[in-house]
Amino acid sequence: MTLSTERGHDGGTAPAVLPVAPVGEPTQNPHAPRHVGTGGDPRSLLRRYQRLALVGDSGSALIAATTALLFRFGPEPPGSYLAITLGLPVLWLLVVGLQRGYEQRFLGTGPEEYRRIADAGLLMFAGIAVVSYALRSELARGYVFVAIPATLVLSLLARRQLRSWIYRLRRRGIGLQRVLVVGRADAVVSVIEKLDHEPQHGLVPVGACVPFVGVAVSHVHDVPVVGDPSRVLQAVDETGAHVVAVVSHPDMSGQALRRLSWALEERGVELIVSPGIIEVAGPRLSIRPVAGLSLLHLERPSASGGRMLGKTLLDKVAGLTMLALASPLFLAIGAAVRLTSTGPALYRQTRVGVDGKTFTMLKFRSMVADADAQRAALLASSDGNGVLFKMKDDPRVTRVGAFIRRFSLDELPQLINVVRGDMSLVGPRPPLPEEVAGYNDDAVRRLKVKPGVTGLWQVSGRSDLSWEESLRLDLRYTDNWSLALDLSILWRTLRAVTRGSGAY
Known about the structure:
Main location: membrane
Protein name: Sugar transferase
Number of strands: 14
Strand order of the largest sheet: 2-1-5-6
Shape: globular
Radius of gyration: 27 Å
Enzyme class: transferase
Largest sheet: 4 strands, antiparallel
Structural class: alpha/beta
Subcellular location: Membrane
Keywords: Membrane, Transferase, Transmembrane, Transmembrane helix
Distance between the termini: 31 Å
Strand content: 5-15%
Number of domains: 3
């Protein structure tokens, strides 16, 4: 990360590059535009998203209710249920609205939008049950058990399509919110890097306010410095910022931050404050008001209890179901491996699981039988990430092995490990004992949960990731896992596997 600096008052010194931390020069994301495109006011885009969300939710409820009506009653339903079917979309919109599922700050970014839709589904299901009991007029269970889950699923799919649409626009520079970042230079650089790396969230840094120490700073990570933190309001006017992001600055707290929020409110500019806690998901953070203070409460990650029981049940039920459905594929792959190369169909390897316990992981053999003996001679040609040995054109891989690796079919036997309880469907990558022997304290934390057949590493690049990126993703999952996140990763895994990116 770099700062471009110039001497403040001797006029004529050429800009220079001053390293902030010895982490190497960052690579600019080609999809992260510095300037807002021709899509107009980002608020207009969010209002359009909001209207489309209303249409999508009402349409989802109508389709689901109609399907439930035909499923339960056939082509000649009772008049009362026809009225319920027509009223269900309105009820669904009201319930989602009560769960704040149409607030613009939750739309088009982060998991909160999906969570509020899911909460609305549970609330409507519980509400219908209570009202039916109170009025002693129980609705047909076949109708309810089709209409409500289908409404929820279709609404989530509609929101997913809306996300894809708005992400495409934002990657083209349309509808981006201009952000002024305020704080210490190192913290500002960190925020700018993260916003550049994920432009789909709709925030583009257009200016920075950093304190000057010794020399005046002209740019921070290619973003122009438009003053120090005392010039925030002038900088907002100069840059046309829609959002001010305050990060790690002692003078920007307490009463000063409160006055800044008042001044920005008058200008219609949003204020966001970074607490400095990285890789922690929103559900673990909450504000606890105490004695006039807004205290940020950080909940402990859940490693036991009801949520973990739900994850275990999901692993067992889904693992057994997938094993049964994939059994013909197991036989076909096993036969192909045995017929095209000498050696067993399955490859067994010792891996490290939760709390450091070792287990035998199963895979379809994709290499020649003596592949392990040949590894030492190939170490110099590794394309891995410095910790893992990987080769894009590994001579030990068989023809069948190359195909099943391309689509991750070699990993199907790990479903047996899932049913046994050694692994989970979703989790960190299962490490080798020699990898664990070299772990630092941070890396050891990834052993807090069961390793997974898939995970954030699988849907984010697989073998193309560096060790640091793989570790960061595994730690992010360990600290923030949830059933909703597991389902999201399983869905994204399907797309990653069909593309075959990063698989070798």
